[in-house]
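Notes continue from the previous slide.

Worked example: a multi-chain complex. Inputs as given:
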Amino acid sequence: AQSVTQLGSHVSVSEGALVLLRCNYSSSVPPYLFWYVQYPNQGLQLLLKYTSAATLVKGINGFEAEFKKSETSFHLTKPSAHMSDAAEYFCASSGGSYIPTFGRGTSLIVHP
Amino acid sequence: DGGITQSPKYLFRKEGQNVTLSCEQNLNHDAMYWYRQDPGQGLRLIYYSQIVNDFQKGDIAEGYSVSREKKESFPLTVTSAQKNPTAFYLCASSIEGNRRPQHFGDGTRLSIL
């Protein structure tokens, strides 16, 4: 069975500050991992994905995530937050089943 | 451009009424999914379909029904048996096979009158 835990339902940062959104997974098989972003009243858009190649994955809009097997983590980071980054972020894991498991989401708030 | 179209964007249902949410994709994806999104609960899988004329229940299928008569279409009916239908509904699709990222529509927000 798979599970995905996103630590913190809300994360607040100042514009220009580091963004760190945490995701831990549990999977009985090597997982594929995804981060999605959702803007209000819209669907989810794929930010980046880990597919067992490089452990540091770069995505769109300056985001990146690092797969750490020993910590079962796939945290999302961005060096400098922009107001337009304010959104809901979802981590997802896909293991032996092609149905992904989603975390509950983290709302990123960016203060001017 | 290829993508997923969900309609309508907003939908209102009266008590005891069935309503159908439309989902159409032109990505030539085999697999399609319906999710329900409630505040603070993430995405919960309602139904999914891997191929035409076949679909499976997800985690919260009670009170919902689907059909998959065409590869590009996967409509969701919210029946009167669904007692708490107010939510944001998302349709997604993916290439068939394990570990594929999903592509999402822009959602339909359903409210009760």
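Summary box: The mean pLDDT of chain B is 92. The longest strand of chain B covers residues 87-94.
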